[in-house]
Amino acid sequence: MSSKKNHHDSLTYLIQSLVGMETTVELRYERSVRGTVAHVDDYMNIEMTRVTCTSIIYGYSQSFSTMFISGNQIRYVHIPKEVDVLVAIHKKLEENQRRGPQRRRMQSHKEQKLQRERAMVRAKILGRGRGRDSTSNL
Q: Which tens digit of pLDDT belongs to each residue from 115-134?
């Protein structure tokens, strides 16, 4: 059996069908997040907008304009009543078969910064970009 995730056997399609809808995501460590789903990748990382994050134990809440939720932090996703689960999964499956699954996963800010730094190092090694010596091609 392959270690690659088989997206046809997962419920990721159901969560991806919630893009544009308001829902609640319960997280590990007794926290919940309510907001509008903006994007869901194949690893079930969720990006939400207009978010209210609440601590279930302590009862305090904070509001954010956007929030990135790593898939491994998710405990439950509340499916809105207006969503027909079977229809949503079937529709998303047909859509992805037509254009192929999204292979790119969302990157956290830390990963984006690391990627930019690596690109700068590669550019310096190859003699491109800032710091290029004009006599190095002679």
A: 777 777 767 666 655 544 44
